[in-house]
Design goal:
alpha/beta, Gyrase A, domain 2, 4-stranded parallel sheet, RNA-binding
Length: 574
RNA sequence: GAUUGCGUAGCUCAGCAGGAUAGAGCGACCGCCUCCUAAGCGGUAGGUCGGAGGUUCGAAUCCUCUCGCGAUCGCCA
């Protein structure tokens, strides 16, 4: 049973406050020696007409702790609860060893569908370090929701439509090189796209041509559609290589084009409800009463725009999946757009609008400059991954030499790849998602401190101990007497382990994977302290040794599981 | 200008349905490998939580104002 619940029961009886109220007030003290939970007595001061410290000093000694794992002590205005270390150790470590990778999972989402839209790159454009944010965040969120029992539908809403394709078709006909396209599709498409924007400044007829080509594409003209299909297919091959490398998967690649033929229905619905009005030549839905600017549904040339596509896709998704939650992992620069889309849905009477959520994230900047595809000043994600992997490789080779480890070339490559990519992923999920990431090579390639390599290192080193234990015939770890794990370092570590499930729940409710990152980071730090100050394999006391090995096993499970939720792989040695 | 987000240690960030002496990592300085992987561990230095008011027994956290930075604001996505 939950310790907090027990405390609420006890306090409810003593104070007369209801359990819900108490649960909200009970907090975790700032320091370990202050106990595990604390109840602040300020709220009782008014009703009891006594000073909080007096109240605490009266209630604390009156609490009967027989039959509970607690010790109670009043400190100033607080009633502090100390969980018996032996009980906590058996409970937490025992559970992790028994549950294994299921530790922290739950069934709260059983039978519920959650749609996570993420990555959604634009076809024909390079995948730069900015696109990595949505890809990594969405992947992590998908894993977190799945862990909590939800049925997750991962959607890659490809940017495979829009006037940009008009531009590309125009540009390709003027300057395209088929050979170059086959060799390096994205590179060639980027070249002509950048050229288009340069030339467009001098020659406005290009803009007209591009717009005309997009119109033809939308009307289904064969030549335009064929070119578009070619660009799309070639781009996807390239993207999929990157996804495979990142361990990112999707259930669905329905891009904007997929929803194109579903837009007329949305337009009709809006029309019927009298929401669609003409304004400056375009068809819009006014949102003044929401305090929002008008939402454009059809442009003055009668072509669609992204808002209309997002409306159509939301309706389609609701009909297809009857989602409990529909999450858009899209940059914060589009906050207004999503507010408008959700507001239009609501106005049209679609109550599922309330279950749609824009999960925003910050900008990725480089030396204070924003990346711009048009201007070509970007860092490709692939280049970042390669740099991280090769830097990692150097370190591994050097360490293996120093440690006298015998590693095959394949193993070195495998470890470098996992660590390097893990390091990159971790930098995206270690902070709150709405923070901008200021990109510097120095920071990105620093693998000390709070980084994935640190966490994986902690894991690998601990796995090494468990291997050695197994090799030397030590058994009974799963049945160890865990009550002996009462040292300060052990206790701090166990407490950190105990908080992992709650951090997963919080990560989901706030759509913030960093909460898990922080928790496993704290576990790793606590464990390294323990590792440094205590003997595990060299422990004289056999009983304690077995218990510590069980603790090591629990730590490995927690770190592996936590990293997995972030989309990062561990290695067994490094 | 309007809307919105942000401003916490030299740097990068936690903490913010108010609560105990504001925490990590990096960097700096000083230590720790005859011992389970030193990508590790310990210690020291470093903060008037952008500023000013207010609410409160109590404010980094809530309210108002203000300064600074970013994003967004109808036919790109």
């Amino acid at each position: 049973m939950d310790y907090k619940q027990q405390i609420a029961d006890i306090l409810s009886e003593k104070t007369g406050l209801d359990r819900e109220n108490i649960l909200k007030l009970v907090e975790i003290p700032p320091k370990q020696d202050m106990g595990d939970y604390a109840f602040p007595c300020f709220v009782l001061a008014k009703t009891l007409h006594k000073a909080p410290p007096v109240i605490a000093s009266e209630i604390a000694p009156a609490i009967d702790v027989t039959g509970t794992p607690f010790k109670v002590k009043n400190v100033g205005p607080y009633i502090n609860f100390f969980i018996d270390r032996s009980a906590l150790a058996s409970d937490v470590v025992g559970r992790i060893v028994a549950e294994g990778d299921d530790y922290g999972s739950s069934e709260t989402g059983a039978g519920k569908n959650v749609i996570v839209e993420y990555s959604s790159p634009n076809i024909a454009k390079p995948f730069h370090v900015g696109h990595a944010f949505t890809t990594i965040l969405g992947n992590s969120l998908s894993r977190i929701y799945r862990k909590l029992g939800y049925n997750v539908i991962r959607m890659n809403h490809l940017g495979d439509y829009g006037t940009q394709f008009g531009k590309l078709i125009t540009a390709y006909r003027l300057w395209g090189d088929e050979e170059a396209l086959n060799k390096d599709p994205i590179g060639e498409l980027l070249r002509i796209y950048v050229k288009f924007h340069q030339e467009e400044k001098k020659d406005p007829s290009l803009t007209t041509s591009a717009r005309e080509n997009f119109r033809k594409l939308e009307e289904g003209c064969p030549e335009e559609v064929e070119l578009w299909q070619k660009f799309r297919d070639m781009s996807l091959v390239v993207f999929n290589q990157l996804y495979r490398r990142l361990g990112v998967e999707f259930d669905n690649y329905n891009g904007e084009s997929f929803y194109s033929d579903k837009i007329p229905e949305i337009v009709d619905i809006l029309n019927e409800k009298g929401l669609l009005v003409e304004s400056e030549g375009a068809k819009v839905v006014m949102l003044d009463d929401e305090g929002l600017p008008p939402c454009i549904i059809l442009k003055s040339d009668n072509t669609t725009i992204y808002a209309s596509r997002d409306l159509a896709s939301a309706l389609y998704r609701y009909r297809t999946y009857n989602f409990d939650k529909n999450i858009y992992v899209v940059g914060g620069t589009q906050a207004l757009h999503f507010k408008q889309v959700f507001a239009v849905l609501k106005k049209a009477g679609f109550d599922f609008a309330d279950n749609c959520e824009h999960v925003a994230f910050g900008l990725v900047k480089f030396k204070g400059m924003t990346f711009s595809t048009r201007e070509g000043n970007i860092v490709l994600l692939e280049d970042l991954l390669d740099e991280a992997v090769s830097k990692t490789r150097e370190i591994i080779v050097r360490n293996a030499e120093e440690r006298g480890q015998d590693m095959s070339e394949e193993e070195i490559n495998d470890i470098s790849e996992k660590l390097g990519i893990g390091a990159v992923i971790y930098t995206y999920v270690k902070s709150g998602r709405e923070r901008d990431i200021v990109f510097t090579w120095e920071d990105m390639l620093d693998f000390n401190g709070d980084t994935a390599p640190y966490l994986i290192y902690t894991y690998a080193r601990t796995r090494s101990i468990l291997r050695k234990a197994s090799d030397s015939g030590i058994t009974g770890i799963e049945n160890a007497d865990l009550t002996v794990l009462t040292g300060d370092d052990e206790y701090a570590l166990i407490r950190a382990l105990s908080e992992l499930p709650e951090s997963i729940v919080k990560a989901a409710s706030s759509n913030e994977p960093f909460m898990i990152a922080r928790q496993i980071s704290e576990i790793a730090r606590a464990h390294n302290r323990f590792y440094n100050n205590s003997n595990i394999l060299n422990c004289d006391d056999e009983k304690l040794k077995t218990a510590r090995l069980a603790l090591c096993d629990a730590v490995c499970t927690a770190i592996r599981e936590g990293l997995d939720l972030l989309g990062i792989n561990v290695v067994e040695r490094m």
